[in-house]
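dumping this here so i dont lose it
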């Protein structure tokens, strides 16, 4: 059962030294209880307390880190069944499959596309994360050679090695150095040897079952043997079976604290359909229902982009709006006589307003004031976008050093604060801009500095 902050505090050394980057032990205990801090961050807590607190505060779906450095990927860490209950923590990883029986040109093409497709959306860079390397026919040399190729050609990829042959796994993993691949191949016949190999190499292990019951047996054995970092494959290769297994696994882990299923799942849409469009649809369903990783047969822009957008939607915190940083944003190369506009830091507002300014071809300075992600009117109503706060921000922002005029264009929805703002910013002329961003291009084209 989860521990409260006070119960955790009783087990802390209470030095209030701040070495955990949190000023007091009480605040640290509260954060650990809320799953926002790791107990290991306190260097003074005893091993016994660490174990007790760590186990009690661990999420029901274990957080698994694959890879290292730039190629690190995190799966799991989930605590709830539905996003509105809290939030989903770590986005589903998107992997592309390369197999040891594919010719060089095919593999090269997949890796080139894996490297090439990258998108920026609301300030977030999005791309596929993982390459799954599959040993199709037990040919160890071919499997190792393919692994080497992926390491060289896809430096940002986190690797998944797929084989049930322990020797082939060992040889391929040896090529990965510190990139810590997922060793996906423990089954009911080899779980002990694969588990030992994963422990020896300090890599996460993938446990596979022929069905959910068989997986529970394999993963239960591994949990009992002390294996901690695992990703599980229920063996389902139809949408219906994979969907049902994912739901059963999540429910059993979250509601019943059932350890053998308390790990992120890996699913294989690439083995559920021949048509890329159908494969993408299956992947999108499984992303929405708890898949930790989806493996695709290839990466194409028209398949990847909608999946990444879905991922962005599902894995943002519903209680925290997306924001951009408070700052001065130059749009289109503004100069000292360019207009100065101000708006809130709700990222959607920022991207719409900056997009309209860009479209107007009138270079401008865009001031973004921190409103904790609230939109213009909501922020004003909440007291976060009032005349006094805007004036403070304008004065400290440094915009006065960038322009020779003193005119500030405020959103049309803030027309009522014009007088108040003129009092706060006595040197500035306050101009009311349009209410809708769509009217900005026409407004800016007619704009001339007032003074
Ligand atoms: Fe307390 Fe440990 Fe944090 Fe120091 S490092 S404030 S002792 S929790």
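and the seq i came up w/
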């Amino acid at each position: 059962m989860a521990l409260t902050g006070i119960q955790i505090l009783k087990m802390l050394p209470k030095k209030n030294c701040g070495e955990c980057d949190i000023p007091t032990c009480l605040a640290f205990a509260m954060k650990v209880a809320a799953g926002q801090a790791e107990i290991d961050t306190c260097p003074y807590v005893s091993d016994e307390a660490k174990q007790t607190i760590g186990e009690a505060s661990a999420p029901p779906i274990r957080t698994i880190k694959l890879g290292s450095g730039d190629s690190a990927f995190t799966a799991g860490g989930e605590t709830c069944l539905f996003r509105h209950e809290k939030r989903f923590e770590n986005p589903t990883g998107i992997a592309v499959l390369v197999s040891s029986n594919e010719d060089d040109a095919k593999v090269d093409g997949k890796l080139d596309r894996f490297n090439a497709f990258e998108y920026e959306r609301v300030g977030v860079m999005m791309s596929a994360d993982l390459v799954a390397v599959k040993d199709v026919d037990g040919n160890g040399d071919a499997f190792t050679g393919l692994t080497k190729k992926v390491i060289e050609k896809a430096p940002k990829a986190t690797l998944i090695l797929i084989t049930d042959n322990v020797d082939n796994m060992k040889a391929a993993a040896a090529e990965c150095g510190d990139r810590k691949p997922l060793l996906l191949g423990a089954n009911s016949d080899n779980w002990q040897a694969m588990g030992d190999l994963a422990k020896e190499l300090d890599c996460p292990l993938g446990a596979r079952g022929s069905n959910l019951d068989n997986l529970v047996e394999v993963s239960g054995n591994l949990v009992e043997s002390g294996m901690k970092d695992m990703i599980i494959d229920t063996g389902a290769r139809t949408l219906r079976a994979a969907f049902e297994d994912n739901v059963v696994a999540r429910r059993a882990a979250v509601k019943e604290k059932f350890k053998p299923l308390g790990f992120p799942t890996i699913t294989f849409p690439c083995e559920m359909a021949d048509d890329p469009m159908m494969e993408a649809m299956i992947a999108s369903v499984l992303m929405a229902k708890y898949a930790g990783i989806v493996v695709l047969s290839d990466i194409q822009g028209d398949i990847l982009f909608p999946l990444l957008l879905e991922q962005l939607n599902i894995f943002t915190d519903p209680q925290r709006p997306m924001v951009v940083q408070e700052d001065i944003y130059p749009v289109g190369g503004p100069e000292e006589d360019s207009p100065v506009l101000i708006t809130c830091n709700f990222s959607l507002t920022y991207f719409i307003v900056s997009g309209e300014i860009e479209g107007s071809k009138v270079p401008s300075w865009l001031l973004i004031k921190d409103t904790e992600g609230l939109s213009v009117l909501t922020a004003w109503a909440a007291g976060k976008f009032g005349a006094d706060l805007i004036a403070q921000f304008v004065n400290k922002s440094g915009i006065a050093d960038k322009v020779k005029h003193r005119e500030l264009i405020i959103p049309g929805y803030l027309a009522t604060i014009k007088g108040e703002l003129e009092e706060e910013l006595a040197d500035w002329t306050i101009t009311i801009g349009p209410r809708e961003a769509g009217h900005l291009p026409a407004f800016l084209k007619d704009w001339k500095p007032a003074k």
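The first helix runs from residue 5 to 10.
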